[in-house]
Structure formats: structure tokens, C-alpha cells
Design goal:
Layout lengths: L6 H16 L3 E2 L14 E3 L4 E6 L4 H15 L3 H4 L5 E6 L7 H13 L4 E5 L1 H8 L5 H7 L12 H13 L18 H4 L4 H10 L3 H9 L5 H19 L4 H12 L5 H16 L14
Parallel strand pairs: 3-4, 4-5
Antiparallel strand pairs: 1-2, 2-3
Helix pairs in contact: 2-4, 7-13, 9-13, 10-13, 11-12, 12-13
Length: 289
């Protein structure tokens, strides 16, 4: 989730985790009325802590706009929370805050010495929230944990591939058949153990994709799908996303809706094109993909 969700989805994830762990001690704040979200994405009542989330869709956006996000909260946040004791800037930048954000936070600490001001990211979300979930809470927060690839059928795969064909945006090369995949490709692309598990588990049904492609009346459609996925992968890679982030965004690109079987079908499709060497990189010694 940390690698793949951003903006309002990141805020909702943080809110879900906090509500599970802190219960009634946590107040989620949603935008509404003349005061909006009161410069807050949630408040822990007992500690008078206000959380502000910032999860843009790319590291470049974080680098260019995070300082403005911090400055947008102060001093206005104090007009809504006069007893504010702690303010936490929760973000999705895996590499940590930039030096400019660090400087902005330090200036706030100097200007408001009675308020504890800090930033929080993946480690905070994992140690303080995620790892305290019960099993039932975890299944509620992470519905993908219920994913069952064995029930994916042609009726789930067909609409996803047809949509890619109908909404094509790239110029395809019908003579580009990709390269032979490498056995070490999963490791070479630095995918997490969870990502590897889902791709390997999804492989059991990639024959469905093969049957769909083989049964199409227009053979050019196979090249259209290949080209669309390849171009989307290259776009995400060139934006600087990590491999798990790329995979998550490809899943979002392929699926029509966030429903377990549709998501599982999207993984089956991506496993097929992963093996066909249309997405992600081959080990250099084997081939260039």
C-alpha cells in the first residue's frame, strides 16, 4: 500500500489504520463546509496530535511541492486546534523528506517551540499502526489479502483486455514480439516478496490470456495490448517509481474497478506480459527488454 497508493487513497489508508489502532481516540477529518478539513487529515484526541498527509503521485512532485504543503498548514492549523500539542507531517516519499522540507520543519519548530513538530513515513505507518492490526482488521484494511487467483476466468480477463484495445493511445509495432524472459527477472527488478508471490501465483492462469489473444479475429489487437502495456510501463519507470510502485500502478491501469476478482485478473494479465518481456526489465546478460 505504501508503494502504490497516493493522494486521497493514501489519506484513507492512514485514516483506516489509525481508526483500527486508536479507536475512538482518533478522529478522522474529512473536508466539508467553509472550514474544509481544518488543515488536518486526522486528530488523536488524547495527545492533541494533528496529522497532515501529503502523498503526491511522484517523487518529483514531492520535491517541488512538499514545502508549500507544510507552509499551507501553519499557522492556520492553530485557528482550528488551539490546544495543539503535536503536528505530524505524514508522507509517502520512500527516500525521506528533502532538505528543503527539513528546513521548513525546523523553522516551524523555532517559531512554535511549544508544539512538537515531526515527519512520519513508512516506518511510522508500519511500526505504530500496521503491525498492531488484528487479523480481522488486516483483512478489512487490505481486501486484496482475500484475492483468489484460482477463480479467475475468461469472463474476468476479457473485459480488461478489450478495454485496453478500445482505449489504445500508442502507436504499435506488429512485428515486435518481445524477448525471451529470464528466470531471474523477478529478482533483477527488485520486486518485494509480496509482489513476487502475487505474480508467481497469478501465473497458474496465464493460459486464459493466451486463449483470448489466440481467439481474437483481428491479430493486430495483440500488438495493441502489448504496446499499451509496454508504453505505460516505460512511462512509470521513467517517472522514477520503484518496481512495486510500477506494478501497483499497472494493476490500476489494467483493472476496471477495485474488486477482488478484477484485481486478480489484472495480475494474471500482468504476469503474462511480464513473462513475455513486455513489462519490466530482463537480466542484462540474458537480453535487453
Amino acid at each position: 500500500m505504501f508503494d502504490t497508493c497516493n493522494q486521497t487513497r493514501f489519506e484513507a489508508w492512514f485514516s483506516d489504520l489509525s481508526a483500527c489502532v486508536w479507536g475512538n481516540d482518533f478522529e478522522p477529518i474529512k473536508a466539508g463546509g467553509q472550514h474544509g478539513d481544518k488543515k488536518s487529515d486526522g486528530r488523536r484526541v488524547s495527545t492533541e496530535t494533528v496529522f497532515q498527509c501529503y502523498a503526491p503521485d511522484s517523487p518529483a512532485t514531492f520535491a517541488s511541492k512538499a514545502v508549500a504543503k507544510v507552509q499551507d498548514s501553519f499557522p492556520e492549523v492553530l485557528t482550528y486546534w488551539s490546544n495543539l500539542s503535536e503536528w505530524v507531517f505524514v508522507h509517502n516519499n520512500a527516500e525521506g523528506i528533502t532538505s528543503s522540507v527539513s528546513d521548513a520543519l525546523e523553522k516551524l519548530r523555532e517559531a512554535y517551540p511549544n508544539i512538537k513538530i515531526s515527519s512520519a513515513s513508512r516506518r511510522f505507518l508500519k511500526d505504530e499502526l500496521h503491525d498492531h492490526l488484528t487479523l480481522s482488521q488486516m483483512l478489512d484494511v487490505y481486501p486484496d489479502a482475500r484475492r483468489d487467483f484460482s477463480e479467475v476466468g475468461m469472463e474476468h480477463v476479457r473485459p480488461l483486455l478489450k478495454r485496453i484495445i478500445s482505449e489504445k493511445t500508442t502507436i504499435y509495432d506488429p512485428n515486435d514480439f518481445g524477448d525471451i524472459p529470464s528466470e531471474a527477472k523477478l529478482d533483477h527488478n527488485s520486486l518485494s516478496e509480496d509482489a513476487k508471490f502475487f505474480l508467481n501465483f497469478a501465473r497458474q492462469n496465464i493460459g486464459i490470456v493466451d486463449r483470448f489473444i489466440g481467439g481474437m479475429n483481428n491479430p493486430e489487437n495483440a500488438s495493441i495490448i502489448q504496446s499499451e502495456l509496454r508504453e505505460k510501463y516505460l512511462e512509470l519507470r521513467d517517472f522514477g517509481y520503484q518496481s512495486d510502485e510500477v506494478l501497483g500502478k499497472l494493476v490500476s491501469f489494467v483493472r476496471v474497478e477495485e474488486e477482488p476478482k478484477t484485481t486478480a485478473a489484472a495480475y494474471v494479465i500482468l504476469a503474462y506480459y511480464f513473462d513475455a518481456c513486455d513489462i519490466f526489465e530482463n537480466v542484462p546478460e540474458d537480453a535487453t527488454c
